[in-house]
Amino acid sequence: MGKSLDGKVALVTGAGQGLGRAEALYLASEGAAVVVNDLGASVEGEGRESKPAQAVVEEIKAAGGKAVAHGGDVSSYDDAKEMIDLAIKEFGDFHILINNAGILRDRMIFNITEGEWDAVVKVHLKGHFNTMRHACAYWREQSKHSGQPAYGRVVNTSSEAFLMGSPGQPNYAAAKAGIVGLTTSTAQAMAKYGVTSNAIAPRAATRMTEMFGMDKDEFAPENVAPLVGFLASPAAERISGQVFIVWGSQVSLLAPLRIEEKFETKGRWDYPRLADAMQPYFDKREPVTDGFIVKY
Ligand SMILES: NC(=O)c1ccc[n+]([C@@H]2O[C@H](COP(=O)([O-])OP(=O)(O)OC[C@H]3O[C@@H](n4cnc5c(N)ncnc54)[C@H](O)[C@@H]3O)[C@@H](O)[C@H]2O)c1
Question: For residue 54, what is the domain's CATH number?
């Protein structure tokens, strides 16, 4: 029996270690040829080192797979194009984009600097946009040329930090929320070209989460990779615009945001009527934890 990703070509960003490495190895083990991108930066996004990406390429090749390294920066629009061009040049086509590269600059909203804000939004949100922009242009052109749907799969990396409003991560939570908006917008825009776009909110024991002392088995990045592989596969062609929380042996599908309560009046609302409607509602509403979203 063939493997689920035989003949497919993938790019995994930030794949020199942690979640990206596990995802690249998994895609390769399922038959995909992989561009292993990694800047080789610190958790804060500083420095540059080509060894981590190259080491993952060697691991894939040693296991009989196909891979090539790219040491570019996802926050660069031109580097992102180069990554996809490299996939096409080396392996003849491009099918799967796994956006994973990320950094942290944690700080409370009242202390965060402009630079800390910009750096995180640039790597996560703009980094996701950069690769998606070039990948989607390629797939749209391919589909228009052939008159058939292309094969395109985007798997983005969001975070529960956004769902929970992580207080020490205003930059990161905002970027991860933006990634969900980018994911669903792209899902809508690219459906007619045969492209799906989904996001995961993973939990894994990596250098990024070292301070939490997470159990290395339960939170192994390898527990996250199979969902990414599945979403990249032909079997997932009808799954798009979705967000999944994934860790250990659990995969949870998020429901769309829903209206909790509708307040209506005759004509335009005014202050007294808004106060009459809102105050009693919020007075009796306990702060509740609804699964993962803390409501105040
Ligand atoms: N570990 C978790 O529990 C967790 C939870 C939620 C979300 N995430 C997200 O998962 C992704 C991977 O995180 P991880 O825990 O494996 O972290 P990690 O630090 O182990 O790996 C991130 C990799 O991204 C690379 N990178 C950083 N900036 C880059 C850039 N500009 N261009 C290319 N590569 C770059 C780094 O060199 C590093 O190898 C991130 O987007 C992170 O926000 C992780």
Answer: 3.40.50.720
pLDDT tens by residue, 215-239: 999 999 999 999 999 999 999 999 9
- Give a yes or no: residue 101 inside a domain: yes
Domains of the chain: total:
1
Is residue 174 domain-resident?
yes
Looking at ligand 1, which atom is closest to the CA of residue 207?
A: 20
Report the pocket of ligand 1 as residue ranges, CB < 6 Å. 13-14, 16-20, 37-41, 43, 45, 52, 73-75, 100-103, 123, 127, 157, 159, 201-204, 206-209
Does a structural domain hold residue 70?
yes
The C-alpha atoms of residue 132 and residue 120 are separated, in whole angstroms, by 18
pLDDT one-digit tens code per residue, 78-134: 999 999 999 999 999 999 999 999 999 999 999 999 999 999 999 999 999 999 999
Structural domain span for residue 22: 9-253
- In sequence order, what are the residues at sequence separation of 6 or more whose Cβ sits closer than 8 angstroms to the Cβ of residue 266? none
